[in-house]
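Reminder to self: tokens first, then the designed residues, so the page reads top to bottom the way the pipeline ran.
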């Protein structure tokens, strides 16, 4: 399986007021939970893009079998993290799965299902659908790498998915609609 994973985790989490990636979840942290799920799949490369809190998140995850990229322009938005992660890919995958670090309800089973559907689909993009939105996690074949590597600004991969139109296959993943942005989101997660 020649697919890489890309996990942007560079934002300042201003609505949370602290590094949401390091909030306790299950027996570790939110970002370690996400990494644990990704690492159960034999991706050819797992790349995490850090930014605002790289000085405290990096040491926490440095022993995982991942590549870490530091986005010094993280304040310009999610698109810059995706672009930088793509530019620094060391492997030459046929596709990349973009997975956010703050979607803790995304399980390994969901990721496997997306990969299986992607491999049998004839479309170059596989997206998660939730609340009538197509978004991430999403898998892009290499024909989309130039677009991903040239992203900038606040818009994430959802913009590329929307513009891809008929080239997108999707599966229903209601769990993708739950991300952790505020203290209230986190309280709901752990209650």
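Designed residues (191 positions):
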């Amino acid at each position: 399986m020649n697919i890489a994973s890309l996990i942007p985790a560079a934002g300042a989490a201003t609505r949370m007021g602290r590094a949401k990636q390091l909030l306790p979840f299950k027996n570790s942290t939110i970002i370690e939970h996400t990494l644990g799920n990704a690492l159960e799949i034999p991706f050819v490369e797992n790349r995490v893009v850090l930014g605002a809190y790289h000085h405290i998140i990096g040491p926490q995850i440095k022993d995982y079998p991942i590549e870490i990229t530091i986005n010094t322009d993280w304040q310009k938005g999610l698109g810059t993290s995706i672009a930088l992660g793509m530019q620094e890919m060391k492997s030459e995958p046929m596709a990349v799965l973009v997975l956010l670090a703050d979607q803790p309800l995304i399980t390994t089973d969901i990721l496997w299902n997306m990969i299986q559907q992607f491999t049998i689909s004839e479309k170059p993009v596989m997206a998660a659908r939730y609340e009538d939105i197509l978004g991430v996690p999403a898998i892009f074949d290499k024909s989309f790498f130039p677009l991903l590597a040239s992203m900038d600004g606040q818009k994430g991969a959802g913009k590329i998915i929307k513009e891809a139109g008929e080239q997108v296959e999707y599966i229903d993943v209601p769990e993708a609609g739950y991300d952790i942005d505020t203290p209230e989101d986190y309280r709901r997660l752990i209650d």
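Helices lie at 30-39, 54-61, 78-87, 108-120, 145-149, 157-164, 183-190.
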